[in-house]
Structures are given as C-alpha cells and as structure tokens.
Amino acid sequence: MPLGFESDLCELNIKPANQNQTLGNWSCATGLTALGDMNFTARNYQDLIDHPVEIAYFTKLEFNVRGISHKMAITGRHNANIKCLAKDLVIIYTHHIDFFNGIVPFDKYLFLTLVRTNAYGGLEYKNSSSLICSRKEMPVLGEHNITPEYTRFLALCSHEYFHAWWIKTIKPDSFHQLDLNTENYTQQLWIFEGFYLIL
Ligand SMILES: [Zn+2]
Q: How far is the CA of 123 from the centre of ligand 1 (A)?
C-alpha cells in the first residue's frame, strides 16, 4: 500500500513493456473510469484496488438494464451464444434492480469472464465481477436450451451481481472503514453469502 498517499487520486496508464510494441487485437477491460483507451483514474487507492483490470483479446457483449450499461468481456476458448446469454442476463438483472426499488449503486457494470475446461468461481467488486466458468456452462451457439450447467453459470452471474448491493453497499460495520494494513474479518458472511427466509 502507498503509505501516506492513500487518499490521493490515482491514474493508471497501461503500456507495453517495449515501447516499440503495440497491444495488437488486445484491449483493456475494467470498471475504472476511462480517460483514454489505456488510461484510467480512481478516486483513491482503495477505489483503485476495487476494480480488476484485464488485458486480453475479448469476446464482448453489451446490453442495457433499466437504462444502465452492462458489459461482459469473455476470454478463453468458447463457442458461446452471446445473444442468448445477454437475453437471459437482462431478465435476471432487471429482477435485481427492481428488487432494490431501482436504487443502483453503480452507473455501469462489467463482468470479466474467463472460460476454462473445468473451473467455477467468482469475486465481486464495486461495479464489476471476475467470473471463472467451464466451457460446458456457456450456452452453445445454435441452441437455446437451459441446461443444468448453463443454469449454474447464470446463478454465478446472479450471485456476484447481487453483491453490488449485498456486501459492497449494505455491509458489515467492520467493512465500512477498511484497514488495508491487515486482514479485515467479519462473522456475518452467513447472511451476506446467501440465506433462505422460511415464512
Ligand atoms: Zn458471494
């Protein structure tokens, strides 16, 4: 951590190590505020580290939910039906935004999705999520069957997105003023990672 500079405005400039090289077809995907293709800014250090940055050759999909721009940048070998994926994600995210009465803690949202042979997991950030899934969990081009594997991926997308409210905005007291010099613990993940209400 940059001690003494925690509150300073941050600027991120991404350049090839060799100035004579270019990034070719690669581009940069991040939820940071862009100043240019490879220039970004963050309010302070904590804001900077709450935005993952990926540089790669992406399959990109973009859709609007309740007027808000949502993007997914996919890396890894896949044959995904991204139109089908976007259509299903709009249904899920419309539900989440409406669940919180249209109060949305971000002005844009990005998913960074890495497709592997056999993997599954995700991590939430302020206005983005990092997802890892298996190839068989992506909807297949030319088909629109909701398979159990595809449902599992949609559940991951739903879970990490919900965290934009339920842990990034509504959060344990100890998460409001993080001490970045050490781990910050909570015993409340039982409620923030999912629970059932039996009425
Ligand atoms: Zn979670």
A: 7
Ion ligand 1, residues whose Cβ is below 5 A away: 193
Domain boundaries, the chain: 1-57, 59-171
Question: What's the fold here for domain 59-171?
Answer: Neutral Protease; domain 2 (1.10.390)
Task: Compute the distance from residue 15 Cα to the ligand 1 centre, in Å.
Answer: 33
User: How many angstroms is it from 170 CA to the middle of ligand 1?
Assistant: 13
How many contiguous H segments (helices) and E segments (strands) does the chain have?
Answer: 4, 10
Angle at the Cα of 156 from the Cα atoms of 153 and 162, rounded to 5 degrees: 145
| Residue-level pLDDT at 25 | 79
Q: What pTM does this model have? A: 0.93
